[in-house]
């Protein structure tokens, strides 16, 4: 099988439930990011992780180290069809922790069904390369929390609209007197 055919076969194996790649931010969205963080920091690169994963990390069984590892994995996930595959050693070095800690944490997240590791092998030599990491489980587990957050956001919005549309009490004054 030629290389393009092998790639096509591999792509069929990627689960379809992988999160939609974020649309390219509009210029105004980038401008807002640059205003908050500076254009230099944004130009150097930025990472997307849904807020609900951070907000509900305890319910998802994640702690600060797990979130940091997920951030490092997400940093390398630019397209839906190309799962991230950073080396555990580079994650450990950036976090200043032992590689075995990263390995154990990733193994636990996989055991908990949050991420899936898929081995990669060099096309010619067959030697193992860094694993790919697929977030289907995390997406599946976080989605109910996202729906919950969206419902709460809608409830607050409706509440605010109702508050604004309420009739305001009229100031009642004795006859003949102006308020």
Task: Characterise the protein shown here.
- The chain is mainly alpha-helical.
- It has a single domain, classed as Arc Repressor Mutant, subunit A (Orthogonal Bundle).
- It is built from eight helices and two strands, in the order αααααααββα.
- The chain has a two-stranded antiparallel sheet.
Write the layout of secondary structure elements.
Layout: H1 3-13, H2 27-37, H3 39-44, H4 51-55, H5 64-75, H6 88-95, H7 99-111, E1 116-121, E2 128-134, H8 136-165
Antiparallel strand pairs: 1-2
Helix pairs in contact: 6-7
Radius of gyration: 24 Å
CATH homology superfamily name: Winged helix-like DNA-binding domain superfamily/Winged helix DNA-binding domain
What general outline do the C-alpha atoms trace? elongated
Mean pLDDT over the full residue set: 85
Query: What fraction of residues sit in β-strands?
Result: 5-15%
Count of separate DSSP helical elements: 8
Seen as an oligomer or otherwise, the chain set is: single chain
Helix content: 40-55%
The number of distinct β-strands equals 2
The number of distinct structural domains comes to 1
Distance between the termini: 88 Å
Low-confidence parts: 1-21
- Give the CATH architecture: Orthogonal Bundle
Structural class: mainly alpha
């Amino acid at each position: 099988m030629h290389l393009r055919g092998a790639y096509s076969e591999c792509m069929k194996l990627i689960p379809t439930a992988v999160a939609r790649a974020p649309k390219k931010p509009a210029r105004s969205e980038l401008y807002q990011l640059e205003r908050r963080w500076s254009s230099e920091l944004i130009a150097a690169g930025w990472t997307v992780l849904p807020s609900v994963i951070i907000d509900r990390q305890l319910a998802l069984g994640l702690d600060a180290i797990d979130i940091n590892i997920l951030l490092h994995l997400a940093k390398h996930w630019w397209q839906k069809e190309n799962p991230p595959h950073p080396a555990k050693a580079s994650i450990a070095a950036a976090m200043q922790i032992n590689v075995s800690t990263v390995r154990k944490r990733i193994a636990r997240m996989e055991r908990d069904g949050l991420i899936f590791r898929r081995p990669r092998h060099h096309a010619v030599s067959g030697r193992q390369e860094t694993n790919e990491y697929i977030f289907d489980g995390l997406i599946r587990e976080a989605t109910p929390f996202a729906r919950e957050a969206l419902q709460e956001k809608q409830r607050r919005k409706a509440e605010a609209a109702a508050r604004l549309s309420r009739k305001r009490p009229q100031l009642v004054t004795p006859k003949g007197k102006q308020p």
